[in-house]
Design brief:
By secondary structure, this protein is of the alpha/beta class. Helix content is 47%, strand content 20%. The protein contains nine helices and ten strands. A hairpin with a 5-residue loop joins strand 1 and strand 2.
Length: 312
């Protein structure tokens, strides 16, 4: 039977034995087949080999049940490229109910399929990135809790011994350290989803002029969730105020921290003049202009507690 010249769609008809008896001109133009090549079982050569078995299973089940079916598969275009098709087919019956076979139509959905696959890949990449971020956050949180738990026992022991010795100064500092550790553990303890956030999550810390211990401080703060930037000079530190806008400044007094804080406090508030800052070192001399002061070498608990207090 000749193909219907007047049908603009890619259509076909099959006999009750599933052999093809007619294809439209649009189907022939798309595949490059002649009518003789397409009829009978010949049309199946245009299907992608990986999709043929799936098409046969679907169509045989539908033929047996005399029900409509729908399936997606790849069909080879006349230039050799396989493109995705959406095919829908329904049974044909004579007026008396006699089963005559099936009629079907194909629509090229390759562009939609590619977009769908691209979206699926993008969603999978986003899912993997989210899992990696959550895992990194959990590891940082667990590490900080572990460090604080390790520090709490010796701090409590020092406080107890100092109390028996009546060394009030030692006892006061030791108990202060215990309170800091307890507060940090309370902040870090898992509760609802928000409570699992690292202690310094989202806090930007500018570390200025800390020779030798700079990367160590950066590591301690990063584990607690902070974003850290090192500034090797006063000029670099002041430049970071506008380009990066830190939340807390840590500056070494022995390096030039007094000069930095004078220039900082001379700036208007909108340019960082009111930035909360902690001085490092200083040999016991008062750090004018700073909000807090830490002795060197800097202890992790004191560092985290000070930055958390200044940031929040």
């Amino acid at each position: 039977m000749k193909p219907d010249e007047n049908i603009p769609l890619m259509t076909w008809r099959a006999r009750p034995d599933m052999s093809c008896e007619q294809v439209s001109r649009a189907w022939l133009d798309y595949t490059g087949y002649t009518p003789e090549q397409a009829l009978g079982e010949g049309w199946t050569r245009a299907l992608h080999p990986d999709d043929l078995t799936r098409w046969l299973e679907c169509s045989v089940r539908a033929f047996d049940e005399r029900k409509p079916f729908e399936i997606e598969y790849r069909l080879r275009r006349r230039d050799g490229e396989y493109r995705w098709m959406l095919e829908r087919a329904a049974p044909l019956h004579a007026d008396g109910g006699l089963f005559l076979g099936y009629a079907g139509a194909c629509v090229d959905i390759d562009a939609h399929k590619c977009m769908e696959n691209g979206l699926a890949r993008a969603l999978e990449r986003e899912r993997r990135a989210r899992i990696a971020t959550e895992e990194a956050s959990r590891l940082r949180h667990d590490l900080m809790v572990s460090v604080l738990e390790e520090l709490r026992a010796p701090a409590e022991a020092i406080a107890a011994c100092a109390g028996r010795l009546q060394e009030n100064t030692i006892e006061r500092h030791a108990r202060s350290q215990c309170r800091i550790i307890s507060s940090l553990l309370e902040l870090a303890s898992p509760g609802d989803q928000a409570a699992r956030e690292p202690l310094l999550s989202g806090v930007r810390v500018l570390v200025a002029g800390v020779d030798g211990q700079g990367h160590e401080l950066q590591s301690m703060l990063s584990v607690a969730g902070a974003e850290v930037r090192l500034a090797p000079s006063v000029e670099a530190a002041l430049e970071s105020l506008g380009s990066w806008q830190p939340d807390v400044l840590l500056s070494d007094l022995d390096w030039g921290g007094r000069s930095l804080i004078r220039e900082l406090r001379a700036l208007p508030a909108e340019r960082g003049g009111c930035l909360r800052a902690a001085a490092l070192g200083g040999g016991g001399n008062k750090a004018a202009g700073y909000d807090a002061q830490l002795a060197k070498p800097v202890e992790p608990v004191a560092l985290l507690a000070t930055v958390a207090r200044l940031a929040h």
